[in-house]
Structures are given as structure tokens and as C-alpha cells.
Amino acid sequence: MDKETLFRKYLHSEMNETEFKEFKSQLDNSEELRQELRIHEAMYEDRAKKIKAQLKSGTPSQINHLKFNNKTAKIKWIRRFAAAFIFMIAAYGIMIYFNNVTSHIDNLENSYIAEVHLPPSVKMGENTKINAWSLAIEAYRNQEFDIAKEQIKEIENPNDEQSLYLGLCYLYAQNPDYNKSLHILESINQKDKSIVKDESIWYISLIHLLQNDKENAQLGFERIIRDKSWNHKKAEKLLSDIKLRDK
Amino acid sequence: MKVLEDKDLEMLKQGYNEPLVKIFEANYITCVSHVKRLCHCQDEDAEDLVMDAIVVLKEKILIGAYENSNLESFLISVARNKWRNRQSKYGRIVFVDPLDTQHLIESQPEEKNQEANDQERELRVIKEAIAKTTGKCGQLLRRNLYDGIPLELLINELGYSNYNVIKSSKSRCLKKLRAYISKVLEKSNG
After folding, report:
1. B77 lies in which domain range?
2. What is the pLDDT of residue B90?
């Protein structure tokens, strides 16, 4: 990476931890590099200051804050209304469920997809370090899957748990990308041992079902039932649902 | 605003900043409220981070490295990274004595005023040094460092034959600039 790119990445806050450590050790060993970085940084900050001044003069901050406060208040009301509406719909859904189980089964896979997988648990003291993963967890918790996805992508050599959540983000995103999600989850499934293998098989099977690939979905659910692994009861329901539909 | 309009993109590529105000306004509510919630910070800090992201957006457009797909996501992601770097100990390098530093140290709250003064003085000296640099070197440093135009775009404008030539010219110019700055700072330090 040439100096120009290196400085750019640093100034744009695009370096990951490893890149930053390497860059820092280069800086430790070269006074010339340190001085050049300072010149670039000082001039970058000067350019940023000018652009910020333009932005502020173009949008008076008082108006902005008013706008912000008013709109957030509006957003809050819209959210409350939406929550109430969702609650009513959910209550209605439950009623329908008890009255007519078969109509519920028709959309079983969609309702299982709609049950967002729980965010990863954070142990006491673990969340003090701010990094791409902790930001991703927070975004995931807030159901901001596009942002969570971007943050996980920044992690170098993600572990299986992180890959699982990346796959889930593609699945839950506003515009889901089933193929990418499938590809990531399959890579976990290929491994002999993985702590999230059961979860990956479950979601792979669900995606197959969403894509109308009943044969592969069925194979997945059968495996879950046979191994009595995670969600095997749900898999049983879905399998009987698939068979019912085929009839 | 999900994607940038072609007209705005073209203006930004040509170095005009006017569309940035429009972008800032159009994405203000969503981005600031997201960043505020994610970073647990005040309106002003979230606003500043979003503005930082807009600065990055402009530079990325200039070097042709911006994929015009989801502007909101881009701005929120950059703002979060900026925030992360401000917060984390590995994200910020602070030079106590500008251009004459042996070690990298952490910023301490009591040093902030001194640091701000040093940085202001340093910026003044750098600007003065660039202004005093004449000829092709002066042109190159002014357009690249002062106006923020990337070297890739200056090859034709300043009549260089290719990227490697302009890069080594800049290296030579920076060497002169550093020598000048060190001299001025040494003098002012007595």
C-alpha cells in the first residue's frame, strides 16, 4: 500500500486494528513518515473545517435542532402508533391461530424467519472494548441489519459466530440476499465442528424453503429431527407442513 | 436519500461543495438520530460525526472510490467508525510537539488546550510554508493538500506523465516543505 493510500485510509478512519498497528509501528520507525502524516492530517482537518462551516451555514443549526426535535417527537408518536398497531395485529394473529391452525401453518416458514435470532450474548466486562463486533452487536440488537452487516464485514478472519450473524444480516436485511446468506451459512455447515452448526442448518433449511427448494429444505429438516438438534420440534411442524402442501 | 443524483455526483466530482449541503439536510434526521443512538452521544456530537462522514464522502467521490448504493448506510457507517476511532485508544495519534516528536502518546484532558494551540500554530506554519513554495511544487502542494484534489486527478491538470512521476515529485516537494517547517518551528521555539 503506498503512502497516499495509507494516509487516506487513516484520515478516513478506514483502518482496522491490524492495519492500524502496522501503520503505528511504521510511524514509530520513521520520523519522515510522522512529519508527512502530520502535514496531511493538519491540512485534512483544515479542509474538513471549511466543509463543516459550509454545511452549518447552509443549514442553520437552530432550525436543524428544531427540525430534529419536532421530527423525533413525530417519529416517537409514529413508532408508538405502529407498536400499538403491531400489537393489535399480533393479538388478531393469535386469535386466528387458535381458531384455525392450518392457516397458520401455511405461513409457518415466514413466521419462523420473522422471529429474529437472538443477538449474541455479551459477558460482563466484554462490552467495554469498542470494536466492529461490539458495534455490530448493538446494530443487530436495534435490528439495523444493514449497518450490522457492514460492521461484521470489517472484522478480519471472523469466527463462526460472527459469520452466522453476517449470514443472518443478509437474511433479515431490508432487501434480503438469500444467496449470500446461504453461501455464508453453508461455509459454517461445511466444517466438522462449529458451535453454531445447528443454527446454520436451521437457517439454511428455512432459506431453501423460502426459495421454494423443497427437496433441500426437507433434507435439512430431516437431519435436524434425526439429530434432535436445535428447533427440532419446529422442524417437525415444517416437515409435516411441506408434506401436507405436496398432497 | 438513498442514492446520489447524477447531477450532484458530477458537481462533486468537479470539486463543487454545494450538493453537500443538500445531502446533509436530506439525511440529517435519519443519520443524526441513528448515530446519536448508536454512539450514546449528544445531538451536537452526532451532527459533527455525520459532517465528518460527509467530508469522507466528498473525498471518496473525488478519487472515484464511492459506490453510489446506499448513502444513509454509508454515512452512518463512516460516522460510527469515526466515533469508534475517537473513543478507542488505538484510533488517535497525538503529537505533543508537532513535527518534532519522538513518541506517540495518548491525549490527556489537561493537555487539550495546549494541544489545540500547538495544532493551530502548526497549521499556520504549514499553510505559510505551502504559500511560500513557488513553481510546480507550490502548485502541486496547493492543489493536493490545500484543495484536497487527489494526485490521480492532478496528473493531467499539472502536466505530469503518470502517477509514479507525480508521486515522486510530491515526495520531493514534501521534503522541502518539512525542512522549511522544521526551520520555522525551531526558530519560534528559540
Report:
1. 6-87
2. 44
Residue B100 lies in a domain: no
CA distance A183 to A61: 46
CB B185 within 8 A of CB B125: yes
ipTM of the predicted assembly exceeds 0.90: no
Q: Which of residues 155-184 of B touch A (CB under 8 A)?
A: 167, 174, 177-178, 181-182
Q: For residue A138, which of A128, A126, A148, A129 has the smallest C-alpha distance?
A: A148
Mean pLDDT of A187-206: 90
Is residue A230 within 8 A of residue A223, CB to CB? The reply is no
- pLDDT, one tens digit per residue, over A138-156 is 888 888 888 898 889 888 8
Is the same domain home to B119 and B180? yes
Q: Tell whether B140 lies on the interface with A, counting CB pairs under 8 A.
A: no
**For residue A61, what pLDDT is reported?**
53
Q: Which residues pair with B94 in a beta bridge?
A: B105
Q: Name the pLDDT band for B187 (thresholds 50, 70, 90).
A: confident
Q: CATH number of the domain at B174, please.
A: 1.10.10
Would B81 be classed as within a structural domain? yes
B52 with B123, same domain: the answer is no
Number of domains in chain B: 2
